[in-house]
Amino acid sequence: MTSEVNEVLLRSLTPSVLGILVRRGADFAAAEDAVQDALVEAVRVWPADPPRDPKGWLVTVAWRRFLDATRSDSARRRREDLVDEEPAPGHGPAVDDTLQLYFLCAHPSLTPSSAVALTLRAVGGLTTRQIAQAYLVPEATMAQRISRAKRTVSGVRFDQPGDVATVLHVLYLVFNEGYSGDVDLSAQAIRLTRQLAAAIDHPEAAGLLALMLLHHARRAARTAPDGSLVPLAEQDRGRWDTESIAEGVGILQAALARDRLGEFQAQAAIAALHADAPTTEETDWVQIVEWYDELARLTDSPVVRLNRAVAVGEADGPRAGLAALVALDDSLPRHAAVAAYLHERDGDPTTAARLYAEAAQKAPNLAERDHLTRQAARLNARRCR
Amino acid sequence: MAKYLLLKHYRGAPAPVNDVPMDQWKPEEISAHVQYMHDFAVRLEGTGEFVDGQALAPEGTFVRYDGEGRPPVTDGPFAETKDLIAGWMVIDVDSYERAVELAGELSAAPGAGGEPIHEWLEVRPFLAAPATITE
Fold first, then answer.
1. Does B45 touch chain A (CB under 8 A)?
2. Do A312 and A361 have their domain in common?
């Protein structure tokens, strides 16, 4: 359809257009509003009258909107001084600006939910309505969240170097929230991480991109037609996206060769070992356990040690897995689910059924709860026969 | 980023500290209470944490399926129902701690004598969408 605006192009231009406005002296909050206005205008005008230079068009329109909006402001005189020295519309240092925007939108002074919302709007070019729909909150609430976030970072200097780790964490959150509504957050997260990895030479940015691609590759196989969850072991591996896997593995290998290991590379390595196995049985569980050891060393996270217990159960048998579990706090999320699985493998369906039912009670989401309840029901039915 | 339900009970929750039935408050105390609830919702919209707030009528009807081609059976209302929901607020916050903090503030709504009711509110997490990365 030629009459439709290329939304992917539009969104990808957002951060560099915003960066140019900020470089010209516009304050971030006002510039961000002006860019949103320009995007809306583009969606309206472009189908009938496509510009030859989309980015130049957006810069011109956004800049005009910015001037219109601030003309009546108390800052009027200062703005008008700016107009006089307005540089010719052109292509500024786009990569650098984009990177600065990532830092700003993931600034440590923001709460995770604000950083996520601001990143999706200012870097991702999504509208407030789209972000609100994706997170199932009213548009007015999301608008307030975004404008508060903008106020919070209003004092931050745009050229201040930021922390890549906070940016990666925000992108990870966007990806992991998954998919709800019209906006595919996982796909957005991949797009933004890809853009970041291109703008900065950082093995963990590459590691996160690889991790996302490897998990995204399994998406079609993760849910049954009725919406129920299909665990890794039972997934139809023929439905995994081999192209996405190949890309993820390639990016990961290049990152690992840099010899600056981080948690995202380690997680991606585990995902790559799963992706590499034709069946669960043929999975290289010994190597997966080693990667979990690395991950535990890097993060000291109890959730990692819980997942490690599952891998130990596969590598060295369920007894070894249960032994690894003993050291862990049983109030950990999914502890009962892991224990249930290992007890079943160990030939104790009675204990497993009880633990599956207990795990279902504590499940953090409906799909998981239904899955665990079915596991308990399956074992109970077999016992009654 | 998680949603919580702040649940207010007519009955079924432990007794509040300032335990005077609303019909025995002064009219201006009722107004102050209503205003407090309204301001709280507005403030939460301002912080980007408000999702929804609703009040329910106390009387409800039980309904069930009664077989193919037959109208549903209705029953009740039951005056003796132990647990009775008065209304709720849904919030979207960064942490459980924040949800508890906000519930604490909501529970401070003024009642008889203009004093906080110290009403017990139930905080229940929503079951979220499954995370993408689980292993």
1. yes
2. yes
Distance between A320 CA and the closest CA of chain B, angstroms = 18
Please report which residue ranges of A85-157 form alpha helices under DSSP H. 94-105, 112-118, 128-134, 139-152
Q: Which of B121, B132, B134, B91 is nearest to B5 (CA)?
A: B91
Q: What would the two tokens of residue A189 be? A: 């997260």
Q: Do B130 and A116 touch (CB under 8 A)?
A: no
Query: Which residue, A253, A283, A313, sits at the end of a domain?
Result: A283
User: Mean pLDDT over all residues of chain B?
Assistant: 90
How many distinct structural domains can be found in chain A?
4
Contact status, residue A135 vs residue B92, Cβ threshold 8 Å: yes
From chain A, pick out residues whose CB is under 8 angstroms from the CB of B46.
144, 148
Token representation of residue A159 = 């050229």
Distances in Å between the alpha carbon of A161 and those of A28, A154, A156, B129?
16, 15, 10, 35
Q: Is residue A195 part of a domain?
A: no
Give the whole-angstrom CA distance, residue A187 versus residue B11: 46
- Rounded Cα distance, A310 and A285, in Å: 10
Would you call A341 exposed, middle or buried from its count of C-beta atoms within 10 A (0-12, 13-18, 19+)? buried
- Which chain A residue has the Cα nearest residue B124? A364
Q: Examine the domain organization and report whether A99 and A163 are in the same domain.
A: yes
Per CB-CB distance under 8 Å, the chain A contacts of B45 are 138, 140-141, 144
Name the fold adopted by B2-125.
Alpha-Beta Plaits (3.30.70)
Could you tell me the residue range of the domain that residue A238 belongs to? 201-283
CB spacing of B45 vs A144 below 8 angstroms: yes
Residue A372 and residue A304 share a domain: yes
Residue A1 lies inside a defined structural domain of this protein:
no
Q: Assess whether A85 and A119 both reside in one domain.
A: no
Q: Is the pTM of this model over 0.90?
A: no
Q: Flag whether A174 is in a domain.
A: yes
pLDDT at A341 (0 to 100): 96
Which residue ranges in chain A fall short of pLDDT 70? 1-4, 72-95, 178-182, 383-385
Q: How far is B103 from chain A (nearest CA, A)?
A: 18
Enter the ipTM: 0.84
A20 burial via Cβ count (<10 Å: 0-12, 13-18, 19+): buried
* CB B121 within 8 Å of CB B6: yes
Q: Are residues A150 and A168 in the same domain?
A: yes
Q: Flag whether A289 is in a domain.
A: no
Question: In terms of domains, do A102 and A168 share one?
Answer: yes
B50–A141 CB contact, under 8 Å: yes
